[in-house]
Amino acid sequence: MYLTKLASVQLVLWNIIEKYNINAADVFRAVNLNPALMQQPGTRYPLTKIAELWDEMDRRIHDPCYGLTAATCWHPSHFGTLGYAMLVSKSLRVTLERLLRYHRVISDADFGEIVEDKENGTLVFNLRYRDEGNYSFSREDAALSWIFSVLRINFQHTLEPVSVNFCHSKPACSGKYYEFFQGPVYFDSVKPSFAISLDKVDVILPGHNEELADFNDQIMEKYLESLQQDSLIVHIRKLITEQLPSGNVTVENVATELGYSPRKLQRLLQDEDTTFLKILNNTRMQIAQEYVRDKNTDLTELAFLLGFAELSTFSRSFKRWTGQSPMHFRNAA
Known about the structure:
Blueprint: E1 4-6, H1 11-19, H2 24-30, E2 44-46, H3 47-60, H4 80-87, H5 92-101, E3 112-117, E4 122-127, H6 137-155, E5 163-165, H7 175-181, E6 185-186, E7 193-197, H8 198-201, H9 210-228, H10 232-243, H11 251-258, H12 262-271, H13 276-292, H14 299-305, H15 311-322, H16 326-332
Parallel strand pairs: 5-6
Antiparallel strand pairs: 1-2, 3-4, 4-7, 5-7
């Protein structure tokens, strides 16, 4: 099954990388992710690539606790409409419920669950990743610290967890976990989770706004409907866009990502009255025209992002598509 994640969410990772004085663009390109897609609303990356991105960050960042910095590297806009909707929720419980209800806005993967533990007087958030392999330690840290930072912003008072659990072992920098969460932290746990007192989860939040929350929910419902209506061709366009910088966009690679054999994918495209090559060329052409219009885009860099080895090769292709050289097209635009 082809699962995706909202590209703009990875701006959090970009910020984390830069915080450690590492060239974020190099890290993204190392796993063949086009950074420009993060600036395009609604664009999504394959989930498999997100896992590769975390692995690459683990190799380059030599701080075992770097995942916790996600708590200070996010902005609500990174999470689309969901980011803003969470911040105007009525209570901490509603904030978490909204995150789970509309999580598909930011990721196709199953993400978590909420369990009310009346015996211990807590509301427990369990992080889960049934649609993906187990999270890396840093990704687990980032997920829990980000969610808890959102809850703290909403609560606007001191918010201490009853407990926080991580699956990984206690790192040498464990003091950073206690410093951030300000509560009991346990390692080598069965599942990653945190618990909040029931006395706090239903307190009406000072920044809540039911009108804005409902408005954002309606936008997210429409967005989710549009995702359900995405055709096979739309998925293929997304994959081609993501794989173009590698210069190795093939029907075999795209078919593998979609879970088909190349032959089956070609048959499905015949039913749509098109071919993989047509989609590839049209996608390249549309992206090229969009970026050539932007005078801030370096043409050599654009050629690389579209999978061309040289600017001259890109220029010839662009002229074949539009009848104009990239510079003439840019000037006219």
